[in-house]
Design a protein that fits this description.
Strand order of the largest sheet of chain B: 2-1-3-4-12-11-10
Oligomer: heterodimer
Number of strands of chain B: 12
Largest sheet of chain A: 8 strands, parallel, barrel
Number of helices of chain B: 5
Structural class of chain A: alpha/beta
Number of helices of chain A: 11
Order of helices and strands of chain A: EEEHEHHEHEHHEEEHEHEHEHEEH
Largest sheet of chain B: 7 strands, mixed
Strand content of chain B: 25-35%
Distance between the termini of chain A: 23 Å
Strand order of the largest sheet of chain A: 1-4-5-6-7-10-11-12
Radius of gyration of chain A: 17 Å
Helix content of chain B: 10-25%
C-alpha cells in the first residue's frame, strides 16, 4: 500500500483544522471559564504527548500568566514542550519583541500568537510577518459582548476601544496571516461557539479565521465551518474534559470521526 | 559523522527537522557552517521564509558551492523541505535571485481563484493528502491515506513531468507536492510536523543509499 496512483478529490485538498487550544500557567496546564477560575488539567509535557499521539491537526499553546505579566514563557521550557510534538505548534503569551518571536520559532513552533501586541506593539505584527512570513503570525482577538461588543487584551482586562470586525481588519492590514477569534463570554462554558461573531469577522477579512470559545460537544465543531465561514476551529474544554461535569480526560476525535463530523 | 546534516541558514525550523530525524532512528547534525557538510552521507535543506533571502544566505554563508559539488557528484541524497524544495528550482515568482537549479523548473504563486472562479485562500495552510504518479524509494512506506502539513504560497512547476514525485490538490487544481531527480529530492510539506506520515518519509530518506 503506497500513495502511488491514489485518486485525489477536492475534499482531500484541505480538511478544516480542529485545534486543541491549551492554556499554560507557570508549568501547569489549566482550563478557565470566561478567562477566570483556572482549574488544573495536567502536566504540559504529558498532555502534549497525548495530543501528539492522537495526531491532532495543530496545537495552540497560550500562556495566560505571560499574557498578564508581559513576560513570555522561558524558551527552554517551550523548547522542551516542542521536542516531543511532531505536529504544528503555535505559541502565544507576552510576546512583544521580534527577538522573542524569533526565539519561539527557533524553539520548534511554526506560529506565534499575538494579542496584546496588536494594541501595544502593532509594528511587531508587521515586522514578524515581513521577516518570518504571514503564515507564522496569528492575531488573537478576545471579544466580550459578541459581534457588537468590545475587543479586550491583556487577558481580557484592557478594552482597546474597537469593535471586533474593525480590529480584525486592522490585524489583517498589519500583516497577520490568520485570526484566532475567541468569545470570552463563551470560553470554557461549553455552550457552543458564537457563530454570529465568527461569521461577521470571516466575512470582513480574506485570511483564515479560527473560531474559539464555547465548544462543548463534538457535533458543534462543524458549525463555525459550515455556517460561519471559519477555516478552523479551536477548543479547550471539549478536548481536556469528559462531558460537561468537567472530569479531566484528554481526548480528540479519530480521523474517521472528524470526517463524519465535518460532513466529508 | 551523523546520518544527516541539516543545513541551518537561520530560516525555519532546523531543530524540528533534526528532532524528527532522531525520532526516525537517525543521527542529525545542525550545520551552520558549510564545512560541517563534508562527509555527510545525507543532507536536508529546510527553510521557511522568502526565496531571495534564503538564496542570498546560502551563497553568502558559502553553502551554495559546497552543495553544488555534492549534487554534481550525485552520491549524497539531498532533501529539500518546503522553501528548501523551492530552492531546487531555477527561479521563483517570489523573487529575482536565481535558485539552485538542480531540478529544472520555476516556482509560481498559487492562484487566488479556482478554475470555477471561487476564491482560494493563499497560503495553502493545512493537511492534505498526496498521490504519486510512480513509485519512488522516498515514498515507499507511506500509507495510501497519508496526509501532510502544508504551509506555502508558491508551488513548484518542474520542466520535466518525470521529476514529479508527489502531487496534492489545492484550490481545485493539482499542485506539485514533491520532486525528485537522481539523488536530489524535495517535498513542499513539512514531514517534521506530519507525525507518523512524516516519520515514514524520513525513515525512507535515512534508508536512501548514498
Amino acid at each position: 500500500v503506497t500513495v502511488v496512483g491514489v485518486e485525489l478529490t477536492d475534499d482531500d485538498a484541505e480538511a478544516p483544522r480542529v485545534i486543541p487550544c491549551l492554556l499554560l500557567e507557570g508549568d501547569r496546564l489549566v482550563k478557565t471559564q470566561r478567562f477566570a477560575e483556572p482549574a488544573y488539567v495536567g502536566d504540559p509535557v504529558n498532555v502534549l504527548s497525548i495530543f501528539n499521539s492522537f495526531e491532532v491537526d495543530e496545537i495552540v499553546l497560550l500562556d495566560i500568566g505571560a499574557a498578564r505579566t508581559r513576560t513570555p514563557t522561558p524558551i527552554a521550557q517551550l523548547r522542551h514542550y516542542a521536542e516531543e510534538c511532531f505536529i504544528p505548534l503555535g505559541y502565544g503569551g507576552g510576546l512583544s519583541t521580534l527577538a522573542e518571536v524569533e526565539a519561539v520559532l527557533a524553539a520548534g513552533y511554526e506560529k506565534v500568537v499575538l494579542n496584546t501586541a496588536l494594541d501595544r506593539h502593532p509594528e511587531l505584527v508587521s515586522e514578524a510577518s515581513r521577516v518570518f512570513g504571514a503564515q507564522a503570525v496569528v492575531a488573537s482577538i478576545d471579544v466580550v459582548g459578541g459581534v457588537g461588543g468590545a475587543v479586550r487584551t491583556e487577558g481580557s482586562t484592557h478594552d482597546v476601544g474597537a469593535d471586533p470586525v474593525a480590529w480584525a481588519r486592522r490585524a489583517e492590514e498589519l500583516g497577520a496571516g490568520e485570526l484566532l477569534i475567541t468569545s470570552v463570554d463563551r470560553e470554557g462554558t461549553m455552550e457552543g461557539f458564537d457563530l454570529e461573531l465568527v461569521a461577521a469577522v470571516a466575512a470582513a477579512v480574506g485570511i483564515p479565521v479560527i473560531a474559539h470559545g464555547g465548544a462543548g460537544r463534538r457535533k458543534q465543531l462543524a458549525e463555525p465551518i459550515t455556517s460561519a465561514s471559519a477555516s478552523a476551529v479551536a477548543a479547550g474544554s471539549l478536548f481536556v474534559y469528559q462531558g460537561t461535569n468537567r472530569g479531566v480526560l484528554i481526548n480528540y476525535p479519530t480521523r474517521p470521526q472528524l470526517e463524519r463530523l465535518m460532513g466529508r | 559523522v551523523s546520518d544527516v546534516a541539516v543545513v541551518d541558514i537561520g530560516m525555519g525550523n532546523v531543530g524540528s527537522v533534526a528532532n524528527m530525524v532522531r525520532k526516525a532512528g537517525g543521527s542529525a547534525t545542525v550545520a551552520a557552517d558549510p564545512e560541517q557538510l563534508s562527509g555527510a552521507p545525507r543532507v536536508v535543506l529546510p527553510g521557511v521564509g522568502a526565496f531571495d533571502e534564503a538564496m542570498v544566505r546560502l551563497r553568502e554563508r558559502g553553502f551554495a558551492p559546497v552543495l553544488d559539488q555534492l549534487v554534481e557528484r550525485g552520491d549524497v541524497p539531498v532533501l529539500g523541505i518546503c522553501l528548501g524544495m523551492q530552492l531546487l528550482a531555477d527561479r521563483s515568482e517570489e523573487g529575482v535571485e536565481p535558485g539552485l537549479g538542480w531540478i529544472p523548473g520555476s516556482v509560481r504563486r498559487l492562484p487566488a481563484e479556482a478554475p470555477d472562479g471561487t476564491p482560494v485562500k493563499v497560503p495553502h495552510m493545512g493537511w492534505s493528502r498526496v498521490s504519486a504518479p510512480r513509485a519512488h524509494p522516498l515514498i515507499d512506506e507511506l500509507d495510501a491515506d497519508a496526509r501532510f502539513y502544508f504551509v506555502h504560497s508558491y508551488a513548484y512547476d518542474p520542466v520535466d513531468e518525470g521529476a514529479v514525485l508527489l502531487r496534492a490538490r489545492y484550490g481545485g487544481r493539482p499542485i506539485v507536492a514533491g520532486v525528485a531527480a537522481g539523488a536530489v529530492m524535495g517535498v513542499q510539506f513539512h514531514p517534521e510536523k506530519s507525525h507518523r506520515h512524516g516519520l515514514a518519509l524520513l525513515r525512507s530518506f535515512l534508508a536512501a543509499a548514498p
